[in-house]
Specification:
The chain is α+β, with helices and mostly antiparallel strands and about 270 residues long. The two termini are about 30 Å apart. Among the domains are: about 10-105, Ubiquitin-like (UB roll) (Roll), CATH 3.10.20; about 110-195, no CATH class. The protein is built from nine helices and nine strands. The protein has helices spanning about 45-55, 90-95, 105-110, 115-125, 140-155, 170-180, 180-195, 210-230, 240-245; strands at about 10-20, 20-30, 40-45, 60-70, 75-80, 85-90, 100-105, 160, 165. About 35% of the residues lie in helices and about 20% in strands. Strand 4 and strand 5 (about 75-80) form a beta hairpin.
């Protein structure tokens, strides 16, 4: 990546959360080559994370969040390792030559797989068998479904066994291992993808029920659909403007909490909101 912006010194501030305790680590003056911005002031985040994992803190089994200087909150980016081609904005995530990162260890790292499955069943006491008359009595939390979906996909993509051999399960087998039906996991994955697309703040709402995420996704899919019906040159209806400008969810502490990225909500043929 060609760099238009040069950083002489970059400071990294880490917050490591494990078993309910938090540890802060400060790393001054890391190699600026790890932050090579392109012409759009974006840079690849995974090389930096790998460096941190190799030299400072093992990041395996962690949920990665970056502090947004625009939203003033930590924004969940995915589970380590992140995709190698994932780019983030230097304008948003580097402030005063400092990058703030938060790493939260997943439950499967802190407890056995058996305990994890039992806990998942308790978190969301739903019937995956589809039996008539079954009721969902308790929804899973957003943070839980993130972990469960990540575990499910990891088992499908392959994990090494005790002999170092890569073992892959089918999606059905992996779902059984996780303790949640494939149908539910497929739905969770879809909700997570749309949530990320529309700017849902996973870090802020990790302890809220998944219904909040569903409502958020449904709301912004409808807003996007309604915007697509507005003809170029027409004024956006006031009711629609109000929906766009209000807080993303009823539980958001501010309007900056859950905000769709630039260019997502727009009228065809017009500049983005």
């Amino acid at each position: 990546m060609s760099s238009d912006r040069n950083f002489s010194k970059i400071r990294i501030e880490l917050q490591i959360i494990q078993s309910g305790t938090s540890q802060d680590i400060s790393i001054p003056n890391i190699d600026s080559k790890l932050i090579a911005c392109n012409q759009n002031d974006n840079f690849l985040i995974q090389p930096l994370l790998k460096f941190l994992s190799d030299h400072h803190q093992n990041l395996e089994h962690t949920m990665v969040s970056l502090f947004s200087s625009i939203k003033k909150v930590f924004v969940y980016s995915g589970n380590y390792p992140l995709p190698g081609d994932l780019q983030v904005s230097a304008n948003e995530f580097i402030s005063n030559s400092t990058i703030k990162l938060r790493f939260r260890y997943t439950r499967d790292y802190e407890s056995s797989k058996t305990a994890q499955v039992e806990q998942g069943a308790e978190e969301d006491n739903e019937s995956d068998s589809g039996a008539k008359g079954s009721k969902r009595t308790k929804e899973r939390k957003v943070g839980v479904i993130i972990e469960k979906v990540a575990q499910w996909r990891n088992l499908y993509n392959g994990v090494p066994n005790s002999n170092g051999e890569m073992v892959r399960l089918t999606l059905e087998e992996a779902a059984t291992k996780v303790g949640i039906s494939k149908k539910s996991l497929d739905d969770y994955l879809l909700q997570l993808r749309f949530g990320r697309k529309y700017g849902f703040n996973f870090e802020e709402h990790k302890n809220d029920k998944v219904g909040l995420l569903r409502a958020f996704v449904k709301k912004f899919k409808k807003i996007q659909s309604d915007l697509s019906k507005v003809k170029p040159g027409e004024t956006i209806p006031s009711e629609l403007e109000q929906q766009i400008n209000e807080k993303g969810t009823p539980l958001c502490k501010s309007k900056k909490c859950c905000v769709p990225p630039s260019g997502i909500l727009k009228v065809p043929g017009q500049s983005s909101n």
